[in-house]
Each structure stands twice: as C-alpha cells, then as structure tokens.
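Priority: low. Protein: DUF2577 domain-containing protein. Input follows.
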Amino acid sequence: MHSFIAKLRGHAQDGIENTQGEFGKLLSLSPLSVKLDEDPTPLEPYELLALRSAQLKLEDVGKKVALLRCNNEQYLLLGVVE
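Result:
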C-alpha cells in the first residue's frame, strides 16, 4: 500500500514539475479552439481541455489565454489573461 501511494505521488510530482505555462489566442468557443503564439496552427480539440472555472464567453474570442502544457501532450486552458 505504501509503495503504491509513493508511486502515485511520484507521478503527480513529475507531472507538476514538467508542466509549462504558455499563452495563446482564443480563436472560437464552438468547438473550443486555441492558437498558441509560437505555433502556426490551432490546437486540435483532442489536444485541449478547458478548466471548468474558466467560464469563457463569446466576447473572449480573440483575447490571450493561459494554458498549461501537460506530459500527455494535452493542454489545460486556464482562462483569459487580463
């Protein structure tokens, strides 16, 4: 049991340490699409998850958003950067 918990903790810490914050432009809300500043193509829907508390609105389209790049090649959209 202790070794299992230690292994889970290790994986969780690895994910946090290797996660990088990035910024991009919100292109649309349906389907949700984000283009990163350094990436010439928008992220595909399977590459992007939105934080529930992000509460994005139609007027947020075109604004800069903050994302976290995760180990599993997905991005977690945190919300609009003011």
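The CA atoms of residues 27 and 78 lie 15 Å apart. Residues 1-18+41-80 form one domain.
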